[in-house]
Amino acid sequence: MSPLPSSLLSDTALIFGRYARQTLSSKFQVLFGVLMPLLFLFFFGPLLTDLPLDPKTDSWQILVPGLLLQLALLGASFAGFSLLIEKQTGVLERMRVTPVSRPALLLGRVLRDAALFVFQAVLLVLAALVMGLRAPLGGVLVGFAFVGVLAAALASLSYALAMNVSTPQEFGPVINALTMPAMLLSGLVLPMTLAPGWLDLLSHLVPLRFLVDAVRAGYVGDYASAAMLYGVLTAAALAALSLTVGARVFRGADA
Amino acid sequence: MAIISTAGLARSFSTKRGTVDAVRGIDLTVRAGEILGLLGPNGAGKTTTLRMLTTLLAPTGGAATVAGFDLVREPARVRRRIGYVAQAGGVDPQLSVREELITQARLYRLTKAEAALRAEELAHDLDLSDLLDRACVTLSGGQRRRLDIAMGLTHHPEVLFLDEPTTGLDPGSRAGLWDLVRRVRDEHGTTVVLTTHYLDEADELSDRLVVVDRGVVAAEGTPAALKSEYGGSPGASLQDTFLAITGRAPAPDDAIPVAV
């Protein structure tokens, strides 16, 4: 009974359109996510400018990639909340009883999230330019790509979790318990090169570490580095795994 | 001709305290064009049965054919032919009536132009034309229910499933909804399967009643036949009949419907 690919594409576009319109109708939703990274940028960024983080680069080139991925991490991980609301209002069941492609119900939402967080990332980079960031255009674009892929992967997992719990009280703590260590251990705020050996080692167990290292490499124009290669591979693997898990959950008859 | 037939349809859930058999084995035959009422106390398995028949929940036992297709093997074909209105309804409160009707039509694979036309048509049929550009949240209870039903009728389904369609409505809106359900059946020959725990609704609206209790069919027949057989006479109240069948009232006065 797998649906034809053409219906998967058109259904995904339809679902994407619905949620994109919904998002655009709420300026609050469009802008809110960028608030916290902006606070970091304005009130934390200036503390780093004279610190000897890395003699080869400027502190903004280290901080901004971290803030971009933090934006995706903290935003997309909570994407499932909206699905919990739609379970309560019956919207999800109403859609699931139509012939709409099941994976499209996931993909349309995930693409909306990716687009939203890339847009917020653009705003953040514009603000960072004002603060003093200078980085090659290619690296900045690579950064947006990482934001999009990470947001899609995490949103997918977040929706999969939301399908399997029934209340925000079950959902919120799980997400908090996972995002906080991920943020600290991946060196989003300060690079793990400053860390003692054991912490640096531990951080390599967190996939996000490889992504942030890759974006930092991009921001100094180091496109052919090992960091970039590992980052791309990790991001691709994470996205493939997350979307597979998400699609499986959305296909399930009982979810 | 049977448009729905089930044999031993069952569903159990595993919980921390062990397995719960929400539906233990439902044998049901619904004829095309009839209005069938599923009546039962809270927790009897009405909603679970409906969610299985609408492909939302996989049965853990038994088999069923809905609108000519096997429920388990061909859910996509079943979905094209059925409409379902859940207790919760299923519209986004912030979106407009028009947007929801159009999206629903597009989910049934109508083109943009066809979907816009169908939204107008449905709004006209269900007396929602003046409300098309209002946000769903601003509708009254009765208007919301009409919208929910419009959503379920988008694709001219052969079978329409309604879960507790009048819960929470005032008496006037309830009567209006009953008329609407009859009209849908009379004009389009749509088979209607509805759950309720309101005895007057079951009595008034259904051609035939199926009393579900503890996950099985406890009795079935026309309201009059059930009253004669279980209540003692054709003039017996459905309340007494119901008590005779299940040994308890359909639902306490203040009961909140429970969805499983």
UniProtKB/TrEMBL annotation, chain B:
It is found in: Cell membrane. It is a peripheral membrane protein. One of its GO terms (molecular function) is ATP binding. Pfam families: ABC_tran (PF00005). Keywords: Antibiotic resistance, ATP-binding, Nucleotide-binding, Transport. Residues 4-239 form the ABC transporter domain. PANTHER family: ABC TRANSPORTER ATP-BINDING PROTEIN (PTHR42711), DOXORUBICIN RESISTANCE ATP-BINDING PROTEIN DRRA (PTHR42711:SF19). This is ATP-binding cassette domain-containing protein. It comes from Streptomyces niveus (Streptomyces spheroides).
